[in-house]
Structures are given as structure tokens and as C-alpha cells.
Specification:
By secondary structure, the chain is an alpha/beta fold. The chain has 10 helices and 14 strands. The protein folds into 2 domains: 155 residues, Rossmann fold, CATH 3.40.50; 154 residues, Response regulator (Rossmann fold, 3-Layer(aba) Sandwich), CATH 3.40.50.2300. The chain is 38% helix and 21% strand. The strands form 2 sheets. It has an 8-stranded mixed beta sheet with strand order 1-2-4-3-5-6-7-13, sandwiched between helices. The protein has a 6-stranded mixed beta sheet with strand order 9-8-10-11-12-14, sandwiched between helices. Strand 10, helix 7 and strand 11 form a beta-alpha-beta unit. It is elongated, with a radius of gyration of 20 Å.
Length: 337
């Protein structure tokens, strides 16, 4: 894997263009002619939220790629992780504004499909970033981490780190209906080598990927099963919430916490020993590839298709035999947020 998956970002001017009850829309970019209104070609970006550092960095990547391609970027985000209605409104607004393509990280992998089908029926190229839809072919293409692999890597790591000790596992998951959460969870169990029904899984809680909810979930799990010694988390905010709950009980040195994302805050937490290992993914790459695909579609009419793996790397300073990994120095060179 290349040592630097970053896309250099520069500041671009952002102008407000449309507002909906649940969304903040913005436009940026300059250059190419060709939009339905005779102006610049428009590309839409719809993220789950506009506060998570992962999606902030994704938007930066899209802004830079749009500027380089001479496109106008229109962006939107749900008010919270799981806000499907907000994303539906954003799709409708973007189609009405004449976008050539829409890039989306779906909040609900199934519920968003009808809105995407309507957009595609009107000739809009639709690309999923980070999270696939259900079914996956509800979009023209997908640029994302292999989330099963991301989960599998931290599962393999946790299994090796336990060195034969009996595990009592807590899984701090995302939310029902979100493919990325299901895939990471299933990948972790595969990597650890246990089925969903295994008695070693003593607690499972949804967190929405939120730090405060992660802390509450961990507190609930410790009440249910005080002997927990392995914690899988959907992302690093949930992991840091879990760490806070563990530290309050004096258990932070006794429980192995693993996660997914590879943001700068999370990677620093690995370096500090709060998280044992994380699977790093690359949102800038997802966004830049998506914008380029829309630019190419606008130029020659050829639609991107299929799945493109944007890469994942296990980051830890406590490497385990048989599990490929890079240290936090590498992680900090390639992190985001």
C-alpha cells in the first residue's frame, strides 16, 4: 500500500445555495461549463453528518477534487447519523438543481434506495462512498474501504493479543440498517474466529458511532458482564467513550479495545495506549475518486461501475505475530481529522 494516501487540500470558497429543514447545503468550485443550466457541471456530496471528522475530511477531498476538475460542488449532510429523511431531501434538492452526479454515504442502506433510484432514472450518476447501499447495485459504483476486511484485521489482532486467554467480548456497534456497521461487526467476529452466537460475546450495544453513547454502552455492558476483557468498537469516538467508562472503573489497562477509522485523534489514542489497534481508512481518496468519476461522466457519458477498494491498514504500536500492521508513525502520516 502506498505510504501516503492523502489528497492535499487547499481552501476553496464555499457559497450557500439551498437550505432544507434538516440540511446545510453549500456550493464550491469554479470552471467547466456543461451543467443543465448552462453553467458549471455540478456534483453533489451527501454525508451522514457534517461534524464527524471522517466526513469533514471527505468533504475537503471533494472540494479539492471539484476545484481541480472545474466542477461545482454542492454538499449536504444529515443532522445526525441515521438521518435518512434529511438525505432524501438532499437528493431531491440536488436533482432539481441539475447535478450530474451524486456522491453519498448512506445513513440507512435500505431506506435510501428509492430516492437513489429516482435520481438514477433521471440520468444522474450515483456513487456510494464509504458505506454501500442494500442492495449494493442501487448505486452505479462504490468507492469504499473493505469494511469486512477492516473488521477482520482488528479481530485477528485481538485474537492474537489475547494469546489463548478466555475472551469475554463486548461489541459496541453502530445502528440497525447500516451496512458499514454490519460489515465491520461481522468482519471482527470472522477475524476473532467466533460465530455471532458464541457465548464469549457477553454484551452488544448500539452507539451510533458517538462518543457519549459509546461511554454509556460500555457502562451498561460492564454492569451486565464485569469480566469483559475485549471490546470491539464501530469507530474511534465509540472507542474513546468506552475507554472513559473503563478508566472510571480502573479497568483501562486490563481490557483490550480495538476499533476502525484511523483518524488523527484515534491514531493518537492508539499511540497513547487507549486503543490497542485500529484499522485505518482513507476518506480523501474515496471523495477524490468519486468526483473524478462524475467529471469523466460529464465529459464522455461513461458511467463508473462496480466496487473500488480504497484501502485499509492496521495501525498499532504493539504488533502481534502473524498480523500485518504499521505503527502509529505511519498512521499519523496518513491520518485525517
Amino acid at each position: 500500500m502506498p505510504r501516503n494516501n492523502r489528497v492535499l487540500t487547499t481552501s476553496v470558497r464555499v457559497a450557500a445555495c439551498t437550505a432544507a429543514a434538516t440540511l446545510a447545503l453549500a456550493a464550491c468550485g469554479s470552471g467547466a461549463q456543461g451543467g443543465s443550466d448552462g453553467g458549471r457541471v455540478k456534483v453533489g456530496l451527501i454525508t451522514k453528518t457534517d461534524t464527524n471528522p471522517f466526513f469533514v475530511k471527505m468533504k475537503e477531498g471533494a472540494e479539492q477534487a471539484a476545484k481541480e476538475s472545474g466542477l461545482e460542488l454542492v454538499s449536504a449532510a444529515g443532522k445526525f447519523d441515521g438521518d435518512n429523511a434529511g438525505q432524501v431531501t438532499a437528493i431531491e434538492n440536488m436533482v432539481n438543481s441539475g447535478v450530474k452526479g451524486i456522491l453519498i454515504t448512506p445513513n440507512d442502506s435500505k431506506a435510501i434506495v428509492p430516492a437513489l433510484e429516482k435520481a438514477r432514472a433521471k440520468g444522474v450518476l450515483v456513487i456510494a462512498l464509504d458505506s454501500p447501499t442494500d442492495p449494493q447495485d442501487a448505486t452505479d459504483a462504490l468507492y469504499a474501504t473493505d469494511n469486512v476486511k477492516a473488521g477482520e484485521l482488528i479481530g485477528q489482532y485481538a485474537k492474537a493479543a489475547m494469546a489463548g486467554r478466555k475472551a469475554q467480548i463486548a461489541t459496541l456497534d453502530l445502528a440497525p440498517g447500516v451496512a458499514v456497521g454490519v460489515q465491520r461487526h461481522e468482519g471482527f467476529l470472522k477475524g476473532f474466529g467466533v460465530p455471532e452466537t458464541d457465548p464469549s460475546i457477553v454484551c452488544s450495544q448500539d452507539t451510533g458511532g458517538d462518543q457519549a453513547k459509546g461511554q454509556t454502552a460500555m457502562e451498561n455492558c460492564l454492569q451486565k458482564a464485569p469480566g469483559i476483557n475485549v471490546v470491539y468498537t464501530i469507530n474511534e469516538p465509540a472507542a474513546l467513550g468506552a475507554y472513559t467508562a473503563l478508566k472510571a472503573k480502573g479497568l483501562e489497562k486490563k481490557v483490550l479495545v480495538v476499533s476502525v477509522d484511523g483518524g488523527c485523534t484515534g491514531t493518537k489514542a492508539v499511540k497513547e495506549g487507549k486503543i490497542a489497534a485500529t484499522s485505518q481508512q482513507y476518506p480523501l481518496k474515496m471523495a477524490s475518486l468519486g468526483v473524478k468519476a462524475v467529471a469523466d461522466f460529464a465529459e464522455d457519458g461513461k458511467k463508473a461501475s462496480g466496487y473500488t477498494d480504497t484501502g485499509v491498514t492496521l495501525i498499532t504500536d504493539r504488533a502481534q505475530t502473524g498480523v500485518d500492521a504499521e505503527d502509529t508513525a505511519y498512521g499519523l502520516e496518513n491520518c485525517w481529522g
